[in-house]
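Feature request, filed as a ticket because there's no other form

It would be nice if the structure record came with a short human-readable summary line next to the tokens. Right now we just get the raw output. Example of a typical job, pasted below so the devs can see what we mean:
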Amino acid sequence: MPAPVASHQSDQEQGSLIAFMYWHREHGIVPDVVPVLEQLSTVFAIYAEISGGAAVTAMDPGLVAEFVDSLNEHDADIASFFCLSLFAYMHFLKDTGRWTGTDESHQILHGVLYHGVLNEKCVATGRPRKPAGNSHPVPHNRT
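Raw output as currently delivered:
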């Protein structure tokens, strides 16, 4: 009897975390990978819940943006670290050929996470609507 899809997906996610750990040693933004791995384990569970179990290798930027906006309203520091951890993982997926989404969705997710790290409200286009807790528009400077 074949293993359930959720179990197979969980195995793939755990395997990708092991590969990510080795990739992170060379390419990581944060010097200590352990907090990032812990955060990613949480990210996987949250994404499974908000996406109905969709693969983390092709995350929906709109769902991530909505979650980041909500998280940012409650705790800006956690939201920033969430985005930083996911940003590193997203680059790992792309660099190692494990990203299964479109190039466009990867680019949009990159923008969402970039603005999320800065605690700016995000939309699925990757452009901020306004800074968290402020009603003034944010200039759309892209780096």
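Something like this underneath would help us a lot:
The mean pLDDT is 79.
The first strand starts at residue 120 and ends at 122.
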